[in-house]
Amino acid sequence: MSPSLPGPRRAPARGGRAFAATWWGQAWVTALEGSTLDAGRLSRGRTYARKGMVGPATVAPGQVKAAVQGSQPRPYRSSVHLPVLTDAQWDTLLDTIAARAGHLAALLDGEMPAELVDDARQAGVPLLPQPTELDPDCSCPDWGYPCKHAAALCYAIAATIDADPFVLFALRGRSREEVLAQLRARRTAPQETASPPAPAGIPAAATYASWAALAEHAPPLPDLPEPSPHTTALPVAPPVGSGLATEDLERLMADTTARAARLLAGDTTGLHLTQHQDAVRIAASTPGPEWFHRLIQNTGAKPTAFARLTRAWRHGGPTGVTIAEQPRTPDPAAMTAARTSLTAALAEMTTAPVPLRAWRNRLTVTDHGIQLRLGPDTRWYPYLQDDDGDWWPAAPADTDPVAALTAVWQQRQ
Q1: Distance CA 392, CA 383 (A)
Q2: Are 66 and 149 in contact (CB under 8 A)?
Q3: CA 305/CA 345 separation, integer angstroms
Q4: Exposure pattern of 261-277 as b/e (b: 16+ CB <10 Å)?
Q5: Residues of 285-313 as b/e, b for ≥16 C-beta within 10 angstroms?
Q6: ∠90-92-94 over CA atoms, to 5°?
Q7: Rounded to whole angstroms, how far apart are CA atoms 213 and 56?
Q8: In what order do the strands lie in the sheet with 76-81?
Q9: Model pTM score
C-alpha cells in the first residue's frame, strides 16, 4: 500500500522562506530535492529563485521552460521535463476524478484532493512527480543535474503549482480546458443499459508468444511474399461520402498484411504498442505529409512532440520511442565505462577541454549540444539539441558510445 497523502491544504513550511505552501506544491519541491544529492546547487537555485532571476515560465505537455539570469549578461534557457501520461492513464485519471463530485469542485477551487492523487497512484497513474521523473536541462555550461538555473526554475514554478493544481495536469499532457471538456463529456454521456459481460478471452500478445514458443519445434512455414501496396487492392470502392479513400484503405491493408506476416514469423513486438505508439509507427513509414497531419489531428498529439517521436522510431523503432519519452536508471558500470571512453575520444577530437555530464542514462557533451542515451538494448542513441533547447534523435543507435558520438559529431562542427 502506498502511504496516504496529508489532508490539510497547507504543508509544513520551513519558515517564511518555503517555496511551496500546499502539500501538492511541496510534493513538487520534494521530487526536485530527492532527484539529486548536490545540496550546493539546490541552495544556489533557491537563492536565484528568491532574487527573481527566473523569467516568465511556459508550461507545455511534458515540460516547463523559462529564461534564467545567471552570471552572464544573456539569460540561460532552462527547462524541466516530466513524462506525460498515456491515453490509458488519462482515462483512468479522468474516471477517478469523475467518480466523486467533490473532486472537480475542489480542483476548480484551487485544491488538489489527496484522495484523488492517492486513488490514481494506486491505479498506476503518477499525477504528482517522482524524483526519478524530473529531467532538468539548461543551456549553461554547468555539468550538474540539476544546475542552479534549472533548480531555480523548479523552485519558482512551485508557487504556480500551489495556486493552480491544473498546472500538474498540463505538465502530464493535457490542459485545463481539455480536462474539463473530457469530464463534461463523461458527465453528459448517456448511460447504457446493463448487458452481460463479454468473455474475457486471452490477450493476443500472450497467445502469439505461446504459439511462437511451440512453433520452434514445428516444421518451418513456407516463405511468405513481401506485401506491397501495389498488389493489395480493395474488392469494392468505399461508399461515397464515407470520408474513406481507396488509396488509404489499401495502404492500411498492406500494413496489416505485413504485420500479420511478422507475427507468423514469431515477432510479437507490435502487439505491445499503445495507440499513440502505433500512430508514430505509421507516421514513420513515410506515408506522406497528409497522413502525418491527419494522425496528429486524430490522436490529439502535439505536432512537435509527434515529429520528434516519429524521428525516434525511424532511428530506433519502439525502443527509440521509449528512449525519447522517458529517462531510465541504467547499470552504473556501463555508464562509467562509456564516460571513460568518451572522455578519451573527445580529447582526441578537440584541443580544448570538453565538459561531459552524466544523468541517469544520458551523457551530454554540453558545449556541442550532443547527448547520448543508453537504451535497455545496451545501445547508445545520439541526440542533438536545437536552438530552442529541445533534444532530437539524430542518428541510428550503436552499441559503441564512441561510434554513436562520431555519427553526430560532424553535424556540430
Answers
A1: 5
A2: no
A3: 32
A4: bebeeeebebeeeeebb
A5: eebeeebbeebbeebebeeebbbbbbbbb
A6: 65
A7: 56
A8: 58-60, 63-68, 76-81, 135-138
A9: 0.53
pLDDT at 78: 92
Coil, helix or strand at residue 390: coil
Q: What is the pLDDT of residues 357-410, one digit of tens each?
A: 888 888 998 888 899 999 999 999 999 988 888 899 999 999 999 999 999 998
Residue 133 neighbours by CB distance under 10 Å: 15
CB 24 within 8 A of CB 161: yes
Hunting for cell 522517458 — which residue is that?
A: 326
Residue 306 grid coordinates? 509527434
What DSSP designation does 184 have?
H
The DSSP call for residue 54 is B
Task: Answer with the residue of higher pLDDT: 36 or 408.
Answer: 408
Q: What are phi and psi of 370, to 5 degrees?
A: -120, 140
Please count the helices (runs of H) and the strands (runs of E) in the chain: 15, 9
Write the pLDDT tens digit of every residue in 177-225: 999 888 888 877 655 555 556 566 666 656 656 655 665 666 665 665 5
Residue 99, all three cell numbers: 467518480
Amino acid at 360: R
Residue that the C-alpha cell 506491397 belongs to: 228
Query: Which residues have CB under 8 Å from 303's CB, separation 6+?
Result: 296
Task: Work out the average pLDDT over 121-145.
Answer: 82
Structural contact between residues 55 and 69, judged by C-beta atoms closer than 8 angstroms? yes
Q: Per the structure block, which three cell numbers stand in for 272? A: 505491445
Q: Which amino acid is residue 371, in one-letter code? A: Q
